[in-house]
Design goal:
The complex is a heterodimer of chains A (77) and B (149). By secondary structure, chain A is α+β, with helices and mostly antiparallel strands. Chain A is built from 3 helices and 4 strands. Chain B has a single domain, classed as Glucose Permease (Domain IIA) (Distorted Sandwich). Classes of the chains: A alpha+beta (77), B mainly beta (149).
Chain lengths: 77, 149
C-alpha cells in the first residue's frame, strides 16, 4: 500500500472523506465521521503529526503534501 | 554547512511564537520565525539552491548539500489562494540566497484576520543540526537566522 492509500484508509476510507486540500506542510481534510479516523495509522503512514477538530483533520506530511493530495484525489475519483 | 538567511525583515519570535501547532511544535522541522515589518515587501530565498516547491504563500529551496528550507509566509495563508502574493520565480528555478521570490504585503494579510508571521524551517533536520539560532530581537532581511550543519 503506498502512502496515499494508507492515508485514505487511516482517514476511514474513501467514503469517509468529504474534502481534501493540500497546504505547504499538511493535508486539510474534512471527514464525515471523525471517530473513523485512525491516528496511529496516519502516523504509521508517514504523518509527522495529526490535528483534529471534530470532522476537520489536518495531517502533517511535510512539503510533499500537494503530491500526496493529487494521489489521494486519484484514489477518490 | 548551510547559512540560512531571514526571508523578511522584522522581529524574530522563534518557532514557539508561531500561532500554529505544526510550526510551534516543530513537526516539520526545527527553525525560527519572524514577525515581518508591516509594509509591502519581497520575501527572499533563504539559501542558494533549487526551488522544489513554490506556492504563492510558501516555498522550499534545497541547497547543494540537500538541505531543504521552508519559508511559510503567514499562517493559514493557503486560504488566500494566492491573492496578494506575486511570484517572482518558479518551481524548478535555481536561485541565489537573497534573491526576491515572492512580493506580498504583511499588513494586508493581517488586515484579513491572519497572522503574517513567517516560519523558516529546516525540513527533516534533527534539532541538534542547527546552531546559532536567532530566537528574539529585530532582524533585517538577509541577516543570518541559523546555521545548519
Amino acid at each position: 500500500m503506498d502512502k496515499a492509500e494508507a492515508i485514505v484508509a487511516a482517514l476511514g476510507g474513501a467514503d469517509n472523506i468529504i474534502e481534501i486540500e493540500p497546504c505547504a506542510t499538511r493535508l486539510r481534510t474534512q471527514v464525515k465521521d471523525g471517530d473513523a479516523v485512525n491516528e496511529p495509522a496516519l502516523k504509521a503512514a508517514g504523518a509527522f503529526g495529526v490535528m483534529r477538530q471534530g470532522t476537520v483533520v489536518q495531517v502533517v506530511v511535510g512539503p510533499e503534501a500537494d503530491t500526496i493530495a493529487t494521489d489521494i484525489e486519484d484514489i477518490l475519483d | 554547512m548551510t547559512r540560512v538567511l531571514s526571508p523578511v525583515g522584522g522581529r524574530v519570535v522563534g518557532l514557539a511564537g508561531v500561532p500554529d501547532p505544526v510550526f510551534a511544535q516543530a513537526m516539520v522541522g526545527p527553525g525560527t520565525a519572524v514577525d515581518p515589518a508591516r509594509e509591502p515587501g519581497r520575501a527572499i530565498a533563504p539559501v542558494s539552491g533549487k526551488i522544489v516547491k513554490m506556492h504563492p504563500h510558501a516555498y522550499v529551496v534545497v541547497d547543494d548539500e540537500g538541505h531543504g528550507v521552508l519559508v511559510h509566509l503567514g499562517i493559514d495563508t493557503v486560504q488566500l489562494k494566492g491573492e496578494g502574493f506575486e511570484l517572482l520565480a518558479a518551481e524548478g528555478d535555481r536561485v541565489t540566497a537573497g534573491q526576491p521570490l515572492v512580493a506580498w504585503d504583511p499588513a494586508a494579510v493581517e488586515a484579513g484576520g491572519r497572522s503574517p508571521i513567517c516560519a523558516v524551517v529546516a525540513l527533516d533536520a534533527p534539532a541538534e543540526a542547527l546552531s546559532d539560532v536567532v530566537e528574539a530581537g529585530s532582524v533585517v532581511q538577509g541577516a543570518e537566522l541559523f546555521v545548519w550543519s
